[in-house]
């Protein structure tokens, strides 16, 4: 178990529309997290940032505008994997004595035009090979992945529906989720098709917001039992329905000293239901996907993304990579309000993303434990 403690987590409320800039959202999240930790800006000597829309500013510009004097700073551009990347580096920095109090923050404000520009120019491969088709963002790519995954595992639309349906039930207890109204299977199946077989409720709603964590050297809070990452595991030449987590699962669980059956809740990166299921399968949490979906998830109400996940709470750009961490920490600190998971002690958090050409190339996971 690491010597660093996560002592506070905060989410600046998500909104479908706002006049605030990315800088203002990030600053608000930093203030909220420090307030939850009982600390001030003057206590901070480390900062990690992830944001697509902070540009042309960088982490150091945000530090300057916040009045932070730092010994350690980092900026991570890797989207859905950025939160756990930042966490891994921050823990190592504290253990090495490079920093004592680190704030990690991620967030974005991407209006319709900004989101369209981001998805059209995400990287050179996208701009040169995909946008001219046009694919109009990642939905078409993940529709193809869902088709392939369904054929490989014998799953139908009503099976994949169990992920957004389960998470919507949790979202009803989260005042910060943008979608909280009950969702039935009939409503799910009747929703407009975005890219077959993906329907509206299979795709994350784009929102504005930010998430932040505060880490300190020791003390009560949440500890990282293990973290593991695997990036570009197959050079974009695999089938895309197995993530890099499959290559590090054994190392993750051995480092954590627990197995997947001992986890009390999971916060899995859920840009699409298919990828949430792929990550759970890769980590040994759902060896039989059909049984998992209709048994453990639908019948037993296992806490998968008890915030509602991105599918119901929303995806605030790069904050999507921090959202699951914030939810897991709140749960393990016993501060999740009405959606609090009873006797939550161990949480699994995953990150996934950064489409290089056909599918995400970055994957990581952490096992967290609440420590009194």
Automatic annotation (TrEMBL):
Alphabetical list of InterPro entries matching this protein: Thiolase (IPR002155), Thiolase-like (IPR016039), Thiolase_C_2 (IPR055140)
Pfam families in alphabetical order: Thiolase_C_1
Segments forming domain Thiolase C-terminal: 228-356
SUPFAM superfamilies, alphabetized: Thiolase-like
Superkingdom to which the source organism belongs: Bacteria
Protein name: Thiolase family protein
